[in-house]
Write a structure and sequence with these properties.
alpha+beta, 11 helices, 2 domains, 6 strands, four-stranded antiparallel β-sheet
Length: about 250
């Protein structure tokens, strides 16, 4: 399957239906994917969660309609699925860092183009590393460790997860976990739990095997990872200095 063509089809579908009720489930159905699989692929290829992309395109079309036709903000807001004037303005400021009126002052006469993945593939997607995964089935197991909540929205996770790793190292959580949990198998786990596909929020956890751990500390969270078939990718060797290790993981 050509994933780029498939995700491009979803981008085109979004563009043609911005004034309709769009959900991840509806868009995923159009291309024959499960909502979660579609969410992950869209984020990987487009660089942002699908509903953030939908909101961004709605805001851009709305602001251009407002600038070109002089319609009231509330009318435009309702047309593109925003319930109130203030709700539209807050969403716009969150996405673009300025108010609608400030944006209009610097507007040109064309709406910024939608993403064209086929063009990106032609000109930009070169010199990539092809990584062959190892497919294995693992039984259910537990992870004991520390977690926090972040979001795919506006790339928060790219900033906050490395900061969480730094705290993990600075506060010596790794040694504390091994002393308290006493895992039979050595090794750390970094776990991303399934996100809220509307908001992009998800929980991220750093821990060790917790199969034999009886919860004692209120600060240590225990998660059960279900039996599943996994694709295992091996990150190229990298030193810890200058965040090279974290960058290698992110690149993988």
């Amino acid at each position: 399957m050509d994933y780029i063509k498939t995700i491009q089809f979803s981008i085109d579908y979004i563009e043609e239906n911005l004034k309709k009720d769009l959900t991840i489930t509806k868009i995923a159905e159009k291309i024959g994917f499960s909502p979660y699989h579609f969410y992950r692929l869209f984020h990987a290829y487009v660089g942002m969660p699908v509903m953030q992309y939908v909101r961004r395109r709605r805001l851009l079309h709305a602001i251009y309609d407002l600038a070109c036709h002089g319609t009231r903000i509330i009318d435009i807001a309702l047309e593109y699925g925003f319930k109130t004037h203030s709700g539209f303005s807050k969403a716009f400021h969150k996405e673009f860092g300025c108010s609608p009126s400030q944006y209009i002052l610097n507007i040109n006469d064309t709406i910024p183009k939608k993403i064209d993945l086929m063009l990106l593939r032609k000109y930009n997607l070169k010199n990539g590393v092809v990584m062959e995964p190892k497919i294995v089935t693992k039984p259910a197991f537990k992870v004991a460790g520390y977690k926090f909540e972040t979001s795919h929205e506006s790339g928060r996770n790219v900033r906050e997860i490395p900061a969480f790793w730094e705290r993990f190292e600075i506060e010596n959580w790794e040694s504390k976990l091994y002393r308290e949990v006493k895992p039979e198998v050595h090794g750390e786990y970094a776990v991303c739990f399934p996100p809220n596909m509307e908001s992009g929020e998800f929980q991220y956890m750093l821990g060790v095997n917790g199969d034999n751990y009886k919860k004692i500390s209120s600060k240590i969270f225990i998660a059960e990872i279900p039996e599943a078939t996994y694709a295992i990718f091996t990150t190229p060797p990298a030193p810890y200095e200058d965040r090279a290790f974290a960058k290698a993981i992110l690149g993988t």
